[in-house]
Each structure stands twice: as C-alpha cells, then as structure tokens.
Specification:
It is a single chain. The longest helix has 43 residues, at 434-476. Helix 2 packs antiparallel against helix 10, helix 7 (109-138) runs antiparallel to helix 8 (143-151) and helix 13 packs antiparallel against helix 14. The protein has helices spanning 2-8, 18-39, 44-51, 55-71, 73-82, 85-103, 109-138, 143-151, 153-185, 187-193, 205-220, 275-291, 293-304, 309-334, 343-360, 367-396, 401-430, 434-476. The chain contains 18 helices and no strands. It is mostly helical and 477 residues long.
C-alpha cells in the first residue's frame, strides 16, 4: 500500500500531515458538543429562578441533550455515509447553533426542551460520530493516540468552558450566555469545512483485487488490516485528493439517486451480524448504565459525608483534569508496539478499574480518601473513552467504523437517560449513596466480564484457525 502511494504521488501519508488537522477539528467538535453539554447544568439555577421550576424539571434538559445526541448518532453516520463527513458536521453545527440561538428567546421550559434539548442534541449527533470516524481515515499506526487527543476535548473544554459560562451568565444573564454559546458552537461549521476526505487512486487490477479480497476476509473475521484504515467513511467522488477503490467498503456502494437511497443499507450495517459486535454491544449497554453515575452523585455523596463545598467541587476538577491525562497518555501507551496487540485487554482493564473504584466508594468518607478515587476514576474514564473507537474498529473493521460508532453511541442513549433517575431513586429508598455506587460498580464490572469473554473466544478462534492452516500445510507436503 505504501509503495502504491509513492507511485501515485497524489496521496498524503497516513499518521501525519493533514491528519493532525483532522485531529484538531475532532478535538474542537468534542469541545463544542460534549463539553457544552456538560456545561448546560450551570444554567439550571437560572432556569429554576426564571421559570419557577424545580430541579427535576430543569434536569430533563440535560438528559434530553445527552439522550438525543446518542440516540440520533446513527443519523450522523447515515448522513456521513450518504454524502460526506463534511456535510454532516457542517449541517450539525448549523442545527445546534440555531437551537442555542432559539433557546435564548424561549418563554417556557417546554420550549427549552424542544430547542435546547432536542434541536441542539440533534445537531450534536450529526457532528459527533462522523468527526470521530474521520480520524480513523487518516490514522492507523498511531490511531489510539489520535483518538485520545481528539476525545480529550471533552475534558479540556469542560475545564475551560465551565468558569467562562458562569462568567457570561453573571455579565449577560442566561439569555446572553446562550447567545454567546450559539456563536461559539457555530465554529462546528468551520471544523466541518476542514474535514477533507481522502481517496486512493486506482492501481493495478490484480494486486488490488487480491488486497480487497484479503480485506474482506479479515473484516468478516472481526480483524483489521492496514489497508482499510483510510476507508472509514463515505468519500465524495469529486474529492481533490484521489484514493484506490476497495470493494466491500460500505462507503463506496453505488449512489442511487432515488428516495430509497436515504434509508439504511443492509450492506452498510451487516457488521451487526458479527458475534463479536453483538457481545461488544452488550458490554456497552452495561458500561453506559454505570459510567455516568459517579459524575452525577460524587459531589452530593461528598457533601453527605461532611466534605466542604469547595472541596467537593475540587473533586470534580480532579476528575476533569485526570480525564484529559487518561485520554492522551493511555492512547499513546496502547499505540506502543508491546501493547498494541492487547488494546482490547487494556480497554477491559480500564473499565474494570472504574468498577472497582465505585465498589469501594462507600468506604471513602473523607476528602483525603476521596481524592485518590477522583484520580483513579478520572484517569481510567479518559482511558476507556479514548479506546472506544479503537476497540470498535478492531472488531468491525475500519470501513464500517462510521456506521458502527453510530450504533455504539445509540446504545448509550437510554442508559444515559434512565440511570441517573434510578440512582436517585436508590438514594431516596435506602437513605444513602452506597446502593447507587454499587449499581455503578456492578454495571462496569459486568461490561468488563462480557468483553473478557469476547477476548477469550476470539483467542480460541484464532488458535483453531491457525491449527487448521498448519494441518492443511502439513497435508499438502
């Protein structure tokens, strides 16, 4: 493949060049989507005072944004596959900016549910998955590091935007702050314009036919080849940077100019039949059920055991900073040659460590004991978030990454919506936060156990296939 690129002379190398611009754009997309979503809770007090609503009513705004972003993630994948990632991100940036703009003029909480919750969330959904999948187009050898840097925008953005949003509310009221956020989120359109798709030039027929057949066999086996790293998304034919066509790539299915082409294609989603992906999907359901609870209930739990308000807030700052460190360092570590074959095992380790941290939380009843929890949980949270696209690509193959990520984030939607209320119900029933943290820990450990089973099955399958090939070679001799 590398020799083919040198012969063509028209293709930029992977793992560098314009790829770092793509990483920067994806970083800004995560800032404008995930970080802005986290900062919406800062408006809750203002919404309660202005509309005379209680905390439960205003909390639904945050849940709707988060749920809509994840629930509509397949829509972002579909738009990216049908047209291009550039179109999806620019359209999403326009919708989310308009949603925030309309929210600044709303006169009721119900309208906020529609404009800030649904419309803005839909815009974020169109941006989030295609931008992440685009990183997979440009990186192979340093894919985990690239994803880690791109996904760190969530933590860095929260760290910077949270005080900025609070200052904007104090200076311009909540309506003015939403106007400024609307202008800030409009930068998604700029990021989308920079997402230049890449395509390979057409090469020699026989050699490419053999490569395509190899890619197809490896993809169906749940493996990833080095040739398919650039083909994660649909690439428009008018692209100025030409790339080799590969059969069996869902992004290159014939474009039918008819109404039915706007709907899902069976070929684009046939990875859903892979047993490995089914197991991965089950593990993501457990993961999403437990990962958000500590972020919601850490501060209330700290206050309930006598920690001061400013110390409890500092715990969240520690979580945010270590989340960033985990994104980048764990991505860099798992790109090393010694750890690269064990990226799935590294992901399982990160999720399992988070689960163990949650199980021990009820024993931590002072600020000095909760600081190590915040450090460990924040670091491993950033670690597994950076590896979600990597693990998904390893299971389904990079050509299906965009569609697969849409399904993966879709699976997060309902658990994100219902797990915080269930955690609050457990607090009301039991009178303590222990059951809530136990629920989080058990869910995370269950996710790790399911993935461990997948890893074992894949290892056995690989050994059986290798033994069969050895026996065939010996019989031929």
């Amino acid at each position: 493949m590398a020799d083919g690129k040198r012969r063509s002379g028209a293709v930029e190398p992977l793992d560098g060049g314009w790829g770092w611009v793509i990483v920067g754009c994806c970083f800004m997309v995560t800032v404008c989507t995930r970080a802005v979503t986290r900062c919406i809770s800062i408006f809750f007090v203002e919404f309660q005072a202005h509309f005379g609503a209680d905390y439960a009513a205003t909390a639904w705004i945050h849940s709707l944004v988060d749920c809509t972003t994840m629930l509509c993630a397949p829509v972002g994948s579909l738009v990216g596959n049908r047209w291009s990632c550039r179109v999806a991100v620019m359209l999403g940036g326009l919708l989310s900016s308009v949603g925030l703009l309309l929210s600044s003029f709303t006169t009721s909480l119900e309208l906020l549910y529609l404009t800030l919750g649904v419309l803005t969330g839909l815009g974020f959904a169109l941006c989030y998955t295609p931008a992440i999948a685009m990183v997979g187009c440009y990186f192979h050898h340093r894919r985990a590091l690239a994803f880690g840097i791109a996904m760190s925008g969530s933590g860095i953005g929260t760290f910077v935007l949270a005080p900025a949003v609070q200052m904007l509310i104090e200076l311009y009221s909540w309506r003015g702050a939403l106007l400024v956020l609307s202008a800030f989120v409009a930068n998604l359109c700029v990021c989308g314009a920079l997402l230049r798709p890449i395509r390979l030039q057409e090469g020699e027929g026989e050699e490419e036919g053999e490569e395509a057949e190899s890619v197809e066999e490896e993809k169906l086996g749940g493996l990833v080849s080095s040739k398919d790293a650039e083909l994660a998304v649909k690439l428009p034919k008018e692209s100025s940077v030409p790339l080799p066509q590969m059969p069996a790539n869902p992004a290159q299915l014939p474009r039918r100019r008819c109404f039915s082409s706007c709907f899902l294609s069976i070929d684009e989603y046939r990875f859903l039949l892979l047993p490995d992906f089914v197991g991965l999907a089950v593990s993501f359901l457990f993961l999403a059920s437990g990962c958000s609870l500590p972020f919601v209930y850490l501060v209330p739990y700290a206050l309930s055991v006598g920690v001061r308000h400013h110390q409890a807030a500092f715990l969240m700052s520690i979580l945010g900073v270590l989340d960033i460190v985990g994104n980048i360092t764990f991505g860099w570590l798992t790109d090393r040659r010694c750890l690269k074959p064990y990226r799935l095992a590294s992901y399982v380790l990160a999720v399992a460590m988070e689960g163990l941290c949650c199980l021990f939380t009820p024993l931590l009843r002072s600020f000095s004991l909760l600081v190590p929890f915040a450090v460990l949980y924040g670091y491993f949270d950033g670690a597994y978030v950076a590896l979600i696209p990597v693990v998904t690509a390893d299971v389904v193959g990079a050509p299906y990454l965009s569609s697969a990520l849409g399904v993966v984030y879709f699976l997060h939607a309902i658990p994100y919506l219902i797990s915080p209320p269930i955690g609050g119900w457990l607090v009301d029933v039991t009178g303590s936060y222990s059951a809530t943290f136990f629920l989080s820990g058990v869910s995370l450990l269950s996710s790790a156990v399911v993935l461990s089973a997948i890893t074992g099955i894949r290892h056995c399958r690989r050994r059986r296939r290798h033994r069969r090939l050895m026996l065939t070679a010996a019989a031929n001799r």
